[in-house]
Amino acid sequence: MLDVLTQKWWAVALRGILAILFGIVALTYPGMTLVSLALIIGAYAFVDGVFAIVSAFGHPGREAVWYVLDGILGMAVGLATFFFPGITAQALIFLVGMWAIMTGVFEVIAGFELPIKRDWMLVIAGIASIIFGVLVFVYPGTGALAIVGLIGIYALVFGVSMLVFGIRLRGLRSSLAAQPA
Questions:
Q1: How distant is the alpha carbon of residue 120 from its chain centre?
Q2: What is the pLDDT of residue 86?
Q3: What tens digit of pLDDT does each residue of 124-161 get?
Q4: Helix axes 89-113 and 121-138, enclosed angle (nearest 10)
Q5: Are 41 and 75 in contact (CB under 8 A)?
Q6: What pLDDT is stored for residue 59 in this prediction?
């Protein structure tokens, strides 16, 4: 799995960049409507899911399953927001919370299964996802603007973690290529 991830480091890094951009937009324009937010979250979740699957594609190993499940979940959340745009604010908030918790669990598991020593970026991204999801469930009534801020902060932390992880994977490519098979 590590050799596939180092070959597809760009998909992991791009996933981080997309999350960072999404976080900046969410924090810069907090007054956007909930329907717009739902569509942006849906687009982000779908694209994030695609890149999670791309990260695992071509590797039949057990670790790849977590990335594929993460990707399928993201794509499903994305499609749900597009097919049901009239979803209530409360349902959307819980959907985002559930997605974040499940994504976090998959990221933590994948982070522990990768044979990279002292690289905790994927685990940190997963923990950030779980914390964000729990906060969404604990404080659902804080209002759309507070949720936008929380989503923006989460996206920035997750994005930076994934970007750093992707860059580290790129650096590992040369050391893996130098190792005898």
A1: 15
A2: 62
A3: 999 999 998 898 888 776 655 677 788 889 999 999 99
A4: 160
A5: no
A6: 67
